[in-house]
Amino acid sequence: MTAQLTAADYALEGSKKPLAALYSRNAKAVIARGLLATRSNNWLVMVSGFFEPVLYLLSMGVGLGALVGSVEGPDGQPISYAAYIAPALLAVSAMNGAVYDSTWNVFFRMNFAKLYQGMLYTSLGPLDVAIGEIFLALLRGAMYATGFTAVMGLMGLLTTPVALLMVPASVVIAFGFASFGMGITSFMKTFQQMEWINFVMLPMFLFSATFYPLSVYPQGIQWFIQALPLWHGVELLRQISVASFTPATIVHVCYFLGMIAVGMLLTTLRLRKLFLK
């Protein structure tokens, strides 16, 4: 009986080893290191990233908005141009904050500081590193979303309490971009390759119906834009901002849930392949 129990125990331990190699339940150590590094070196960069969408809102929403006047909102009712582009800029802010932390910061730590190699030489697994780094990106995205939503409130652009749900929705958007961004960055080896990230993000920012409705484009281009993650984020936050929900709302949320799942899987597998040979 004792021998049988011992054999079962060994079998159980063996089944746990693959999971233990991926995740040691200590992502908080990665988070603590990241917070300490941010407080010491990068806090000014983080604060400066908040002002970009605010400046866009003031220049485009208030300045250009005086010429544009009212536009049709997600529920078909007329809203000010500032109220139309503000949720879109919030989605852009969540994207930018998450992508910066999960791409350029990760690229430096992976290829120059050799930080992840050192982490994975300890008891930490690749999933611990992925969760910790992505959490830091989400924290940045949440800070940007909260601050920008407060600015919207001060400008009188929040017309319903439901609009406060834009903050957690922005975190979901940031989660999608952060998890996928870190996985993609694991393939990058040079600064020239990293420039492709900006090459993709700028057109996505300009053409994801951020400043004007999707209907202005030809049908073929509309289909392409609707495949972009930022468009789903923009549409999701616009619907929340006026409490107008449709079946498309579920599609937008599911898009990001799928993006998160694929991104987390890709990131974990890539870290394991690169550093646990």
Put the structure in a nutshell.
With 277 residues, the chain is mainly α. Helices cover 78% and strands 2% of the residues. It has one domain (26-275).
Protein described:
The protein has 277 residues and is mainly α. The chain has one domain (26-275). 78% of the residues lie in helices and 2% in strands. It has helices spanning 2-22, 27-68, 81-102, 104-111, 115-120, 126-154, 166-185, 191-207, 219-226, 229-241, 247-275, and strands at 70-72, 78-80. It has a two-stranded antiparallel ribbon. Strand 1 and strand 2 form a beta hairpin. Helix 2 (27-68) packs antiparallel against helix 3 (81-102), helix 2 packs parallel to helix 6 (126-154) and helix 6 runs antiparallel to helix 11 (247-275). The chain is elongated and about 60 Å long. It starts with a helix and ends with a helix. The model is unreliable at 1-16 (pLDDT under 50).
Say how many strands there are. 2
Q: What is the succession of H and E elements?
A: HHEEHHHHHHHHH
Give the integer mean of the pLDDT values.
83
Number of domains: 1
What is the gyration radius calculated from CA atoms?
A: 21 Å
Task: Identify the quaternary structure here.
Answer: single chain
Number of helices: 11
Strand line-up across the major sheet: 1-2
Measured by DSSP, the beta-strand proportion falls in: under 5%
Give the low-confidence spans: 1-16
Major sheet summary line: 2 strands, antiparallel
> Shape, please?
elongated
Compute the separation of the termini in Å: 39 Å
Percent range for helical residues?
A: over 70%
